[in-house]
Amino acid sequence: MLTSLVLSAALLGLAHATLVDLNTTQSDGVTILETKTFETTLTPANKIVVGGGTAGLTIARRLAESSLKTSVLVLEAGGSGVGLNVVTIPEKSFSFVGTDIDWGFTIAPQEHAGEYEINLSSGKILGGDSAVNGLVWTRASKAEYDAFETLGSPGWNWDTLYAHMRKAEQLEYPSASLIDEYGYVVDASSLGESGPVSVSFPAYLPIQHKTLVEASVELGHTFNTDAYSGDNAGVYYSLSSQNTVPVRETSEFAYLTPWETHKQLTVFTYATVSKINLDDSSEPKATGVQVIFPDGSEYTASLKSGGEVILSAGVVRTPQLLELSGIGNSSILTPLGIDVKVELPGVGANYEDHTMALLTYQLKDGYLSFDALSYNETLLEEETELYSEGEGWLTFAQAVVNFEPIDVILTADEIEEAKEILSTKPESTPQDQFDILKELILNGTTQVEYLLFNSFSAGDDKESNTSYVSLSITHTHPLSRGSIHINSTSIDDFPVINPNMFEAEWDQWWLAKATAYGRKFFQTQAFQEIVVSEEVYPGSSVSTDDEWLEYVKENLNAGYHSAGTASLLPKESNGVVGANLTVYGTQNLRVVDLSILPMLISAHTQPAAYAIGELAATLITTGSTNC
Ligand SMILES: Cc1cc2nc3c(=O)[nH]c(=O)nc-3n(C[C@H](O)[C@H](O)[C@H](O)COP(=O)(O)OP(=O)(O)OC[C@H]3O[C@@H](n4cnc5c(N)ncnc54)[C@H](O)[C@@H]3O)c2cc1C
């Protein structure tokens, strides 16, 4: 892999390519990457893509294949995911936390929830978060994507985003035996047929996940047989970003690997961009970027005349790089001694993430979850062997989700209470977003996701040799808005990550109600057959409204679906990019990643990141000013 990247660099005429002595060892899921001296000369490129993550590699590949004359340089802070079990094996999703491929971000203590830091791990690797995420592949409802256009960005609607999600994906239709065994259902006409990213159902479905389907139906929820064409309500079998080998699909494996020897596309790994270089014109022009390698050596990567920089460093690093380069709010930049090139207060603003709470139950004797892999060595050996044949537990990360609107969860009286709470706009929510969200909440768009983690994922009393499951309850449309801003001039320091969770009363109230409802799943006949009745966490001491509220405040998690720090909105609405994704006030700098999403959707976000990459490529190659 690296040889090929170096080769492609050589074909571009570089004096030296990245010299990486990559010794990759893995023990207990921990990746150790050793690097040595870097000696690098970077040749000017037509397009410089900062960040080889989900959206970054998507656009890089599409631009490189669009014209033989377009040279594309990708600069990625992490290394390759090739051969890393923690990346490739579906069951190991989330095992990257705390390893060298984790940026290790944390959310600052939240004023309106328990005052503790919240984990916000993220992939520092080619593929970015697509290499470390939970593999869940979902879409939201039409109205949620159409809201982007209503907020002021022509063409950013369901039709264009649906078309570009389909362009990214390729459905691997389940075999007859899998359908027979697990009941997998998917409407193939709603999915892409020939995109680079394979999506499929796992070869193994734990019984407890099948039980979540049965429990949902027992509770009267809809079983959705076509959740990928604009109506996502109900429980359904969700696809995963994995092929049928089965290996996780990352943007590296899907978009880069098949193209790695292509001479227009050059990828430098372990290349951390510290700043975008802008000229002094009144509407600044990017001339290139500053790059730092692990040995501390620093280089300038320059643009060819007429070229552009594409910022795809993700929701945390993209606003940081804009601010470090002098684009942002002068009240933040000036005190740090940064020369303000473009006054743009929207940079880092409008930040949000899904919020999540968990309930934990113990499985009855005879039923096992992934917990058993850590206390039963024989089982681990057997499953590892089975995985090499494409079967068994390790092929599974997730396959069942349940998205519901408020009227399925709340009583008639509670709906009246909800209306009362929503009659006042929370302080941090922009008025136009509030108006749209209120409409979505009260008119049947899904607001919560229930999903089962196949392990002990919350609580203090984990017993040895025991298997558990945890139900995650995710609020999919928080009203609270926060920010990500720098507080130093160094790329080595993390910016302050503050989604302002629970600032809105609605966000607290709804997550508490939806979490209390979560208990009902375990009281169904379907779950009672496989779980011990007594809840492990939080347990019977939590039952009143006040107790649930306190519980969610003290046990709040991020949904790992951060968005909005370089929003696709009109400038006067705290926007950072217009419909063609160019940063306001600049000539040739675009943002192409999840930072542009102006409002979160009721879905996991990787398909949106791929669609943004695909759509941006369409915009650039057709020279369009909007979609
Ligand atoms: C733990 C976790 C679980 C998730 N689970 C799911 C799921 O199951 N399903 C789903 O749909 N979504 C999931 N998501 C969300 C989804 O994966 C992300 O929203 C999406 O992949 C983000 O894409 P992106 O292109 O915006 O950023 P990324 O994919 O994060 O790409 C950013 C890239 O930029 C690089 N970079 C950053 N700074 C620099 C710099 N200064 N110089 C050079 N390179 C830099 C990073 O290393 C990274 O490769 C999850 C996310 C996480 C973190």
UniProtKB/TrEMBL annotation:
SUPFAM superfamilies: FAD-linked reductases, C-terminal domain (SSF54373), FAD/NAD(P)-binding domain (SSF51905)
Domain Glucose-methanol-choline oxidoreductase C-terminal: 478-613
Annotated FAD binding sites: N133, G134, L135, V136, V273
Gene3D superfamilies, per database record: FAD/NAD(P)-binding domain, Glucose Oxidase, domain 3
Cofactor(s) named in the record: FAD
Keyword Glycoprotein: yes
Name of the protein in its database record: Alcohol oxidase
Phylogenetic classification of the source organism: Eukaryota, Fungi, Dikarya, Basidiomycota, Agaricomycotina
